[in-house]
Amino acid sequence: MTAPASEYPGERLGRPTSGRGSIGRPGRRILALLIDWTAATIIATAFFGYDQFALPEKAGWTMFAPMIVFAALQIIFIPTIGGSPGHRILGMRVEMERGGWVGLWRPIVRTALLVLVIPAVIWDADQRGIHDKIVGTVLVRA
């Protein structure tokens, strides 16, 4: 026996069709990711420098500085302001599936999976990535 198809993303989660509390759509999510990655790159470059012509063996760990800063932004801002700077700028927030504070461990696990990329680009019918499903969170419009 199969479950009935949803009319819209988030229906199975009891979320509204649009407006506050509705599922954050892909366009906003991608733009938020670009905002966060740009901010992380600017911060990493300001603190750790940038050598466009460095080979990976000479660049060392600074090659990963933007990703480390990106992860730090996610881990710090999701539990404190409800989302990354990109999420908040675009009017979204990360919430628990059934409401409540996301806590401290969920942003860490969610970010670790987000940095791996694949869990974030595989979505279910509610447009939730595997990284959100595993930790029980949902990205919604604020």
TrEMBL record:
Keywords: Cell membrane, Membrane, Transmembrane, Transmembrane helix
Membrane-spanning intervals of the chain: 30-50, 62-82, 103-123
One Pfam family from the record: RDD
Domain RDD residue range list: 25-135
Topology in the lipid bilayer: Multi-pass membrane protein
Keyword Membrane assigned: yes
Subcellular location, record wording: Cell membrane
Region (Disordered): 1-21
PANTHER family for this protein: PROLINE-RICH ANTIGEN HOMOLOG, PROLINE-RICH ANTIGEN HOMOLOG-RELATED
Annotated protein name in UniProt: RDD family protein
Organism in which the protein naturally occurs: Microbacterium dauci
Taxonomic path: Bacteria, Bacillati, Actinomycetota, Actinomycetes, Micrococcales
